[in-house]
Amino acid sequence: MNLGISATEFVSQAKEGAISVEEFVAQTLERIKKTDEKIHAFITVDSQNALEKAKAIDKKIKSKEKTGICFGMPISIKDNICTAGLKTTCASKMLENFVAPYDATVTARLKSEDAIIVGKVNLDEFAMGSTTEFSYFGATKNPWNAEYVPGGSSGGSGASVAALECLASLGSDTGGSVRSPASFCSVVGLKPTYGLISRYGLVSYANSIEQVGPVAKTVEDVAFLLNIISGHDTHDNTTANNAHVDYTKDLKSGISGKKIGIISQMIGDGIDKDVASATTSAVSKLQDLGAECIPISLDAVEHSVAAYYTIASAEASSNLSRYDNLRYGFDFSTEGYEFKAFVSKARSHFGPEVTRRMLLGAFVLSAGYYGKYYLKAQKVRTMIKAQLDEAFKKVDYLISPTMPILPFKIGEKIDDPLKLYLTDINTVTANLSGIPAISVPFSMSSSGLPIGIQLFANSFKEKELLQAAHALQETTTLPEMSQ
Amino acid sequence: MTRIGLEIHCQLTKLASKLFCSCKAEYRNLEPNSNICPVCAGLPGSLPMLNKKAVEKAAMISLALGCKIPEKIGFFRKNYFYPDLPKNFQITQYNAYGPTSIGSDGKMEIEGKEIRIRRIQLEEDPGRLVYEGTSEKTMITLVDYNRAGTPLVEIVTEPDFETPKQVRVFLNVLADLVENIGVSDPYLEGAMRVDGNISEGDGNRVEIKNVGSFSDVEKALHFEITRQQSLVERGITVLAETRHWDEARRITVSSRSKEEEQDYRYLPEADIPIVLIGNQSIEQIKTQMPESIVARKERYITKYGMPAQVATVLSSDKFYSDLFDKSHNEKNAKEVSNIITTDLMGFADTREKKLELKITPKHISDLADSILANKLTRNSGKLALQEMVKTGKALVDVISSLDLGHVSDAGSIEKIIDEVFKEEEKAVAEAKQNPDTINYLVGKVMRKTKGKADPATTLDILRKKLSS
């Protein structure tokens, strides 16, 4: 059985009874057992439940009962998205034993379409990081070379899809957390427009900029998942009504006659030479398809990383205050503690990156500093949005490499937060402005490491964005993961 | 000069659900921690959904207090660690970066004095802490989150009060006002909570918290004024601090916590987008607001000729003025107002007693009509009312079961007078000599008829008989 097929191929075969869902899921679980020892994408694997569901779905298909459109597709879910009855740890000791009593809206929608959740996947603690090294349960490794980082924070999502441990995954993207692992693991990852997908059940890190995003092998798969998980939700005030757009329709419309802006600030200093030449090559392939590519300068991008870390940290310091270990958390007796002493002792169990950002966030929000840092960062955000609005008057899409550098070795940058933060330079712009962006696997470096190309479109233009991403995908030939 | 300002927290008890979820807004008398959901318990991943009705009700309070309502309102997070706060931040409103709270710059007049309202904000109530155990060693703190997320409106005044009495009057008027516009039942336990701040001359401001009732607010302020004045007299500086009202000892006590120094690190609440209010919705909210207490009083005086005192009493009590409005017609309005203000209000002066009343508008209007038609004396009317209030029976049934029907035909009264004359020979003789003692005989007749005889007819016949 070929575990390397795409999610949509799986659906069409399962629908016709050409493959047994139970057998596919069993092999997937077998694959997880074998592969995950090496790459450690999963925090929790839900084998028994997955197999039972698969059996039930096979039965439904055979008896021609109405079956959800996922037909038992095995998926993984980032461990900061709530799944009723299954632990949601956020890769933190603070939520080591937390079982949400409810499903996130995205989880519920996938379940109701008969997707099978095989397990919960690894991330940087509370999604803070870009390498998946900052997990309480240990780092995830890049399936293409286990000495390298898989990107992050949705490293478990990227790695589990690339390693054929599931057909698709849900990650979350606050500053590039879906696109970075998509790029480093050679899979497709979408950060949708802020408000397109419900955040209900996504554990908040920086709630004004983050979105749940699908990760899969192909652009078709991402469009398929987006159809299921997007749209208005009565549990999330910030969701928009997308009027049930069918993202899979007209996916192959091509990009002939479209205008694409190449963001100058994202291909300049500090960019890896393999990444640079891949970008040039991607641009020329798009031109071959009839697109017109022009350089575009967005100088506010230069301040984007600083603005991003100010805003994200500020929101994190507030969002993570609830973890005081009084209502849920890890075993820790209150005996002998006053309230404040207990809370500060309990909260000393956060990992180093989370602690760093909470302190930074508390500082920028404190009296006398709010205007100096937080408000200034919000101004940068407004500036970026204004420059993008201008740009989208001239072009349909923007393009850049997803990551300025190739995947690096585990441990290489862990002690240098500033260097790590700077690798987000190409991704945070989409979060600060709310616009959608997608990472498409484009090529492999001379050292055999994946390179992804990022495309942006204006807010709620996911349909057009996916069309361009599909066109780019069709120009590539990439190695297959060995089974 | 004494300057007093108030911060009043008023729960919107008339709403069905909490401010950000669908749990019940009425949390009282429930099993602890049974009225909670992932949202109000602040579970990871949960998001607040703004209750639009709460915004409308808060806007009504703002309008009633003459406040400006901005085009757009927004919410902020007030961050601090406390066990009654499930998220360790409170979702509230904040005006430091521009007015985004539901109301600002209002005023209310009491006893000819204008009290300025600084701002009105909509926010969530925290949970409740319950202390158990007798000594410090056995003491445990329990948390009940049933109240967490209950919609709360905070009303902040300028320090415009000069006396505790003014504060008391203001609070009573405010309580009547929120009850009248149908946003809150201020007499429910904990529904209206008051903190005061107070300063003497140019002295420091002292905050007083933890005051349980309006009358205690007055007492606490009195105590605090005396305390500050005696410090000033002795040349001691009044410290800027928070003090708690100790109900048992009837004094204010310094609370050691340095709450003033706390930095709440306010942050816009991105989970709740800016709410556009705009003139159109304000106009719509205005149409939903009931007649104000002042307008109602005016109507009672001009339309029905009610004495000002009666009109004031009736209009400021929502329960009774609603009952009046539903019971009266043009002919019996004055009688209805009499029945309500002199008799009914005496029977039921507390919230609990009002709830137990089995009276309907029909009872009241039937009663007024019978009295006006001379079918029932006022005395019998009072007895009938007492019975209707208890049983809810119709007036006709009460009249027959208690035998209250009016005896006004001269024949029956004369018969009774004859009986009285036989029994009271001495008094009859006396009355013939001295007409002033006639009332004794009227009383006897009334006793025999259980108050049903028409007093005028009785007197008439008595006089005739005595002079014959």
Automatic annotation (TrEMBL), chain A:
Keyword Ribosomal protein found: no
Documented EC number(s): 6.3.5.7
GO MF: ATP binding; glutaminyl-tRNA synthase (glutamine-hydrolyzing) activity; transferase activity
Record: active site: 78, 153, 177
Annotated ranges, domain Amidase: 23-466
GO annotation terms (biological process): translation
Domain of life of the source: Archaea
Keyword terms of this UniProt record: ATP-binding, Ligase, Nucleotide-binding, Protein biosynthesis, Transferase
GO cellular component: glutamyl-tRNA(Gln) amidotransferase complex
UniProt keyword Transferase present: yes
PROSITE patterns: AMIDASES (PS00571)
Catalytic activity: L-glutamyl-tRNA(Gln) + L-glutamine + ATP + H2O = L-glutaminyl-tRNA(Gln) + L-glutamate + ADP + phosphate + H(+)
Family recorded in the similarity comment: Belongs to the amidase family. GatA subfamily.
PANTHER family recorded: GLUTAMYL-TRNA(GLN) AMIDOTRANSFERASE SUBUNIT A, MITOCHONDRIAL, TRANSAMIDASE
Subunit-level organization: Heterotrimer of A, B and C subunits.
Known role: Allows the formation of correctly charged Gln-tRNA(Gln) through the transamidation of misacylated Glu-tRNA(Gln) in organisms which lack glutaminyl-tRNA synthetase. The reaction takes place in the presence of glutamine and ATP through an activated gamma-phospho-Glu-tRNA(Gln).
HAMAP family noted in UniProt: GatA (MF_00120)
Protein name per Swiss-Prot or TrEMBL: Glutamyl-tRNA(Gln) amidotransferase subunit A
Species of the source: Nitrosotalea devaniterrae
TrEMBL record, chain B:
Keyword Disulfide bond part of the UniProt annotation: no
Signal peptide: none
Limits of the Asn/Gln amidotransferase domain: 322-466
Top EC category: ligase
Superkingdom of this protein's organism: Archaea
Example of a GO MF term: ATP binding
GO term, biological process aspect, one: translation
InterPro entries registered for this protein in UniProt: Asn/Gln-tRNA_amidoTrfase_suB/E, Asn/Gln-tRNA_Trfase_suB/E_cat, Asn/Gln_amidotransferase, Asn/Gln_tRNA_amidoTrase-B-like, GatB, GatB_Yqey_C_2, Gln-tRNA_amidoTrfase_suB_CS, Gln_synth/guanido_kin_cat_dom
Keywords from the UniProt entry: ATP-binding, Ligase, Nucleotide-binding, Protein biosynthesis, Transferase
Annotated catalysed reactions: L-glutamyl-tRNA(Gln) + L-glutamine + ATP + H2O = L-glutaminyl-tRNA(Gln) + L-glutamate + ADP + phosphate + H(+); L-aspartyl-tRNA(Asn) + L-glutamine + ATP + H2O = L-asparaginyl-tRNA(Asn) + L-glutamate + ADP + phosphate + 2 H(+)
Transferase among keywords: yes
Family stated for the protein in its record: Belongs to the GatB/GatE family. GatB subfamily.
NCBIfam families with a match to the protein in the record: gatB, PRK05477.1-2, PRK05477.1-4
Assembly and binders: Heterotrimer of A, B and C subunits.
Function: Allows the formation of correctly charged Asn-tRNA(Asn) or Gln-tRNA(Gln) through the transamidation of misacylated Asp-tRNA(Asn) or Glu-tRNA(Gln) in organisms which lack either or both of asparaginyl-tRNA or glutaminyl-tRNA synthetases. The reaction takes place in the presence of glutamine and ATP through an activated phospho-Asp-tRNA(Asn) or phospho-Glu-tRNA(Gln).
Record's protein name: Aspartyl/glutamyl-tRNA(Asn/Gln) amidotransferase subunit B
Species this chain originates from: Nitrosotalea devaniterrae
